[in-house]
Structures are given as C-alpha cells and as structure tokens.
Specification:
Blueprint (H helix, E strand, L loop, with lengths): L3 E4 L6 H11 L6 E4 L10 H11 L4 E4 L3 H9 L3 H18 L9 H8 L4 E3 L3 E4 L14 H6 L15 E4 L10 E2 L3 E3 L10 E5 L5 E4 L5 E4 L1
The site of manganese (II) ion has 7 residues, from helix 3.
Length: 218
C-alpha cells in the first residue's frame, strides 16, 4: 500500500531531516507532504532545501509554504519586509547562505516560490497553520492558513469531513497533539523537541531530535 507521510516544521534542522527521511524510507509510490517553515531559526537551511529537492526524485512530493517562506520571499524585494524577517529567525538563514540574500541559489529560490498553500486528499487535508471549519481552503485568507496559531482554541471539525494536519504552533513538550479531527505536528525540533513524520493512514510516526537521535512508534 502506498503511504502518505506528513512532516512538520523543519526550521533549518537539516541533520534531523536527513535521519528522519532515512527512517521513513520513502518508496516511489509514497507521497510526502511537508507543512512549510523549512527556513529560519536553525542553522542548516541550505541542507534542508537540498535534502527536500532530493526527495522529489524518490517519491511523490508535495511541499507546502509556511509563513517563514513568505517572509523570506518578501524580504527579497521589500526593505521593510527584510527588517521584519530579520526579527523572526531570518538571521540564521541569511548567515547560512553566506550573509546576503543574493547568495541564495536560484534553484532554492525556485523551490520556495513553488510551494503550495494547502493540499487535500480523500480523507485528509494539509495546511501550514490553521483553517476555518466553515470555509473551503481556497477561500481562506493567508492570515489564517499561514499565520494564525492554535494556542487558545482549536477549530471544530472541518465541514469537508477530513482530518486536518497542521504545523506552525510548536508543541513545547515535543509530543504530537492529536484531537482526532486535527493533528498539530510542529513538535519543536529547533527548540529542543523533535522533528516528526506521520503515516496519516496507519498513525505510525517517527521523531528525531536536533542531534539526530531517532525514536519510532511503528
Ligand atoms: Mn510557521
């Protein structure tokens, strides 16, 4: 059976991503969905993008965009956006590319520009940050899908009847928060938790910490 694997916010944790992908062992028929926020905070953003570009040749790959990719792309053309990005984790990314935005290789920029805003399959949907239970994803503003945290309240099940997979709101304890109709899988790798990958149909999952230490629940 082909699997659909979803990975949460990577945030420059390239070593963790490599170990995680090794453990998941994607087959050509599998689909990998990544929930965005590849860049910023961690020091290995170039390794993260290279590793993801490599996945594209090994399995079906659906990369989503996160608010940090939006910040980076806007910083390229807008000095105010550049300042905003610098205050939200962009410094590490800039440093890891050699100190100037112009040094980001074109194929990395192309990758970031071509990420999708959401993805839907028969029983699941995927979006970076949040959703409105009564709105189709293509009508939901970016302020919600890319920026709004799930801290104080959670959306009720979406009218589409599908399970939501989101990142963006770091789970400080490193544990996936699964409410049945909704799972938050930003398990705070950069902040001392784990990078998580989940098989959305079986519920199997893998977690790797910043140093590359793996734990499996399969
Ligand atoms: Mn985010």
């Amino acid at each position: 059976m082909p699997r659909t694997i979803v990975i949460g916010d990577i945030h420059g944790c390239g070593t963790a991503l490599k170990v995680l992908l090794q453990a998941v062992a994607l087959e050509p028929e599998d689909t990998l969905v990544t929930l965005g926020d590849y860049v910023d905070r961690g020091m290995e953003t170039p390794m993260v993008i290279d590793t993801l570009l490599d996945v594209a040749g090994k399995a079906r790959f659906i990369p989503l965009i996160g608010n940090h990719e939006v910040m980076l792309l806007q910083a390229m053309t807008d000095p105010q956006a550049y300042q905003f990005w610098m205050q939200h984790g962009g410094q590490q990314t800039l440093h890891s590319y050699g100190g100037r935005l112009e040094l980001i290789p074109p194929h990395h920029r192309m990758f970031l520009q071509h990420c999708r805003r959401y993805w839907e399959i028969d029983r699941h949907f995927f979006v970076h940050a949040n959703f409105r239970s009564d709105l189709p994803l293509n009508q939901t503003p970016d302020e919600i899908t890319l920026w709004q945290h799930m801290k104080l309240s959670f959306p009720v099940p979406h009218w589409n009847g599908k399970k939501a997979w989101v990142g963006h709101t770091p789970q400080q304890n490193g544990e996936i928060l699964d409410l049945g109709h909704l799972a938050i899988i930003d398990t705070n790798c950069y902040g001392g938790g784990y990078l998580s990958a989940v098989d959305v149909d079986s519920g199997d999952y893998w977690q790797v910490d910043l140093e590359g230490k793996l734990r499996e629940f399969v």
